[in-house]
Amino acid sequence: MRLGLHTRVGAGYDAAVAYAQRLGCTTLQFFGGNPKTYRVTPIDRPALQRFAAARAAAGIGPVAIHTSYLINLASEDGKTVVNSLRLLKNDLAIAAAGDVAYVNTHLGSYGKRDRKDGFASVVAALDDALAGIAPGVHLVMENSAGSGQLCGGTIEELGAFVRACGNHPALRVCLDTAHSWAAGYQIDSREGVERFFELVDRELGLDRVVMFHFNDTQIELGGHRDRHWHIGEGNIGVEGFRAIVAHPGVQGKIAILETPGEDEDDLRNVTTLRRVLDGITA
Ligand SMILES: [Zn+2]
Ligand SMILES: [Zn+2]
């Protein structure tokens, strides 16, 4: 597995690569733009190409963009869907310009809308985005904590999206461990992890999942709330992550930490996970 962090790029791409390198990371995730606005800025191709070259030189890759939190492809407000699709396509274009393999996105929320209509809206948006996707770029759907109306809270629903999009080869899946736990998947033991991946394999196929978000959480199992916590210090725990990294379903893929806190927390979380990966007992 390749291990990395969600990395700030506000101080420039060089600083982001240097930070990832300092922590010994071999992948990373970043925001393509400001995650809290629908506005898009022009794509700086030379800067993205320098970023790609710096990552390659540092042995960092494949990497991921996380799309804006504003994206809602299921909204009953047509304007929101149009704006969301523009953001998604912009990140796919940034990925193509900057040699980024994965564009990880939340799908959104059905709100008060009939789920069937919301589902169809998401599928239409995904089809549209996939129709123009560049070779080497993948649109990655992230599973949600599955609270009430959130899209993609179950593995079955993600499987339904994949099938509705004709099993498009560029449509892939990211599994966030904290979201999985909050959605009710008990991944804190070998048996639980085994059961989880059996479901993933049946509904999606293990190859459909290209990346993971490794976050612990203090939310109760099935609590449907999205709160990330430090690795090994939450309900998934070191045992859970040990079982996850030992599973064939994760081998050769990337894991991104989205844990809270400052640089020292990043270091602690990466160190904990590296020990888990190396099979060292804490
Ligand atoms: Zn996310
Ligand atoms: Zn996540």
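^ zinc ion complex. The chain has a mean pLDDT of 96. The chain is about 40% helix and 15% strand.
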